[in-house]
Design goal:
Largest sheet: 5 strands, mixed, barrel
Order of helices and strands: HHEEEEHEEHHEH
CATH architecture of the largest domain: Beta Barrel
Number of helices: 6
CATH class of the largest domain: Mainly Beta
Radius of gyration: 33 Å
Structural class: alpha+beta
Helix content: 25-40%
Distance between the termini: 106 Å
Oligomer: single chain
Number of domains: 2
Mean pLDDT: 80
Low-confidence stretches: 1-58
């Protein structure tokens, strides 16, 4: 056998090399062509990717479309085709649509009218969650941005671009701390003191 092989090498060196390569591939190619998951390198199955961790410092804003204003601090919005009622957190407006008529006030009507002047059906808004997702009535608890902020923690942007902040700044809502939803409490309280001191909105007749 050794003589036959030696003769082949001498007479047909190229053929011999090709045959040797074919033998190596036949014996070990199967294992060499397998990926770490046991599939061939040419398999259509994509490898499972581990998700990259999110940015813990970035505020997660969810875009929504305004459907209607319920009262000063409550909206109905559409998110991916489903309607959700949103309660603005960190603030409180006087009542205007409470089931008990005695709770509704002229100041509440003014606050609702002011909110309606800021957001209308079809407007895009951006929702920011704090610690809690919903309240006991199933309403989403959110800060509502009229424009996407460059820095959500900036007090100036809160007073200019966040609906919650604008309502407090203009005296149609009071800053209120509810549970642990207090991410923007300090900025809202500062805006509230300024509004009250200037007598803006209904701050002088409701408190």
């Amino acid at each position: 056998m050794r003589r036959v092989l030696d003769g082949l090498v001498l007479r047909h060196p190229v053929v011999t090399v090709v045959a040797a390569l074919a033998l190596v591939l036949a014996v070990g190619g199967g294992a060499a062509g397998l990926g770490p998951d046991g599939l061939g390198a040419g398999s259509d199955r994509a490898p499972v990717a581990s998700g990259a961790p999110g940015d813990p410092d970035g505020a997660a804003l969810e875009q929504a479309t305004v459907v209607r204003v319920v009262d000063g601090d409550t909206l109905v919005v559409s998110i991916d085709g489903r309607e959700e009622r949103v309660r603005l957190i960190g603030i409180d407006c006087p009542e205007s649509v409470a089931p008990e008529p005695e709770r509704n006030t002229p100041e509440g009507e003014d606050a609702a009218a002011f909110t309606k002047s800021l957001v209308k059906r079809g407007d895009a808004v951006w929702l920011e969650r704090d610690e809690n997702d919903v309240d006991q009535y199933g309403r989403l608890l959110r800060y509502v941005w009229l424009e996407e902020p460059a820095s959500p923690d900036d007090a100036g942007e809160i007073g200019e671009k966040m609906l919650n902040g604008v309502l407090v700044r203009e005296g149609y809502a009071q800053a209120r701390r509810y549970g642990d939803d207090v991410a923007h409490a300090s900025a809202l309280e500062t805006l509230g003191r300024e509004a009250s001191g200037a007598g803006r909105g209904v701050s002088g007749s409701w408190g």
